[in-house]
Amino acid sequence: MFIELMPLIENRPLTITVAALSEGRIRVNVVPQALAKDSKVNEKIGYANKDKVAQVPESAIHALTVPLSLTGAPEEIDAELAQQLTTYVDSHLKLEHAVDEAKRQIAEAIKAIEEREKNRSKAKTTTVTKADDTKSDQNSEEAKIASDNLTLFEGAGTTSAKLE
């Protein structure tokens, strides 16, 4: 029994209960315990990215703690328990792996979104700076052209100076 449960026990604690029922039957429950990391799967998404990144459904997170419950005669439980535990542990580990993979993909998606937003803000800053530089260049060229062209008053002042 514990050989079959060991892969699951390594990842999360379990509670095993055995109860006597009527007519010589028993019930065996194997209940995986919730872990703090289970509730943090969707934590990185945050409010700002809730429309951009899909969350892991609560039902999948809750499924990590769904118990295995076997009811029957002690002989039936003895005969079936090892196979039932093996099947249960395999499906639980697949689910755990899927949730962990989803958490990793969420983290990658959030990182990609943050980098994209960062690059967008850099591009806007660069565009504004280039536009300001272009305006400065245009203003200096206009000033040079204006200084080359004499105004009415500058020309009058120069002419009167030559006459004297």
Supply database-style keywords.
5 helices; rod-shaped; mainly alpha; disordered C terminus; 64% helix; three-stranded antiparallel β-sheet; 164 residues
Helix content percent band: 55-70%
Gyration radius, to the nearest Å? 37 Å
The largest β sheet comes out as: 3 strands, antiparallel
Strand element count: 3
Mean pLDDT: 81
**Strand percent estimate:** 5-15%
Q: What shape does the CA trace take?
A: rod-shaped
Main-sheet strand order equals 1-2-3
Helix-strand sequence: HEEHHEHH
Overview in brief:
The chain has helices at 2-9, 36-39, 58-63, 74-148, 152-163, and strands at 14-20, 26-32, 68-72. With 164 residues, the chain is mainly alpha-helical.
Describe the structure.
The protein is mainly alpha-helical and 164 residues long. 64% of the residues lie in helices and 12% in strands. The chain has five helices and three strands; from the N terminus they run H-E-E-H-H-E-H-H. The chain has a three-stranded antiparallel β-sheet with strand order 1-2-3, covered by helices on one side. Strand 1 and strand 2 form a beta hairpin. The chain is rod-shaped.
